[in-house]
Write a structure and sequence with these properties.
This protein is α/β, with parallel strands linked by helices. Helices cover 47% and strands 15% of the residues. Strand 4, helix 4 and strand 5 form a beta-alpha-beta unit.
Length: 229
Amino acid sequence: MWAWHKRVETTFRTVFTPKSAALFIATGIGLFFYFRHEKAQLLARREEERASKQYGRPNVGGPFSLLAPDGTTFTEQKLLGKWSLVYFGFTNCPDICPQELDKVTSVLDVVENKHGKIFQPIFISVDPARDTPARVGKYLKDFHSSFIGLVGSYDATKAACKAYRVYFSTPPNADPAGDYLVDHSIFVYLMDPSGRFVEAFGQAVPKEDIVEKVEKVIGEWEAETGKKV
């Protein structure tokens, strides 16, 4: 037994010489710096990918200040922290606006069933002469319950439309009692939780394609940030 312990001790001393110990430590230090370098490279690549996604995006969205149905001021800052689907229309619209709002409602029903309440749909009126906060609020009750309707003066409406590159034909001196239609751009704008533009969906884009795109960008956002919003 004594001889066996002696052999083990001799082997241990032979293996763990000062030279081998130094080599072991040097290898450990080398691996530490290697993995730290690889981590830094990975983070750099992720940042490059994020930047490349942003590069070339249309400059859509920006500052605006409008009124919500409860009379409070709603600015672009209140878009932060949730995904947004933004649509510009008017309550007297006979068919296109209701169809688009129904489509947004269907998209939200599908997405929120899977991801929860991570969306804030926004309706911005392009008919400041006739649409009031109360009228827009009542109008939106026929659509998704989380819709927020926004209205403003002609100048405030024009500024919001300019930020989103939306065309609308309402003249500044429109008669509030007038029976007229408003020609306007027909897009649903997808904005991310940082308030940045992601995609614009035209009238011809079906619900299924919007859901597919939304699912894709939520997945990318979650992979990058570790959360859905």
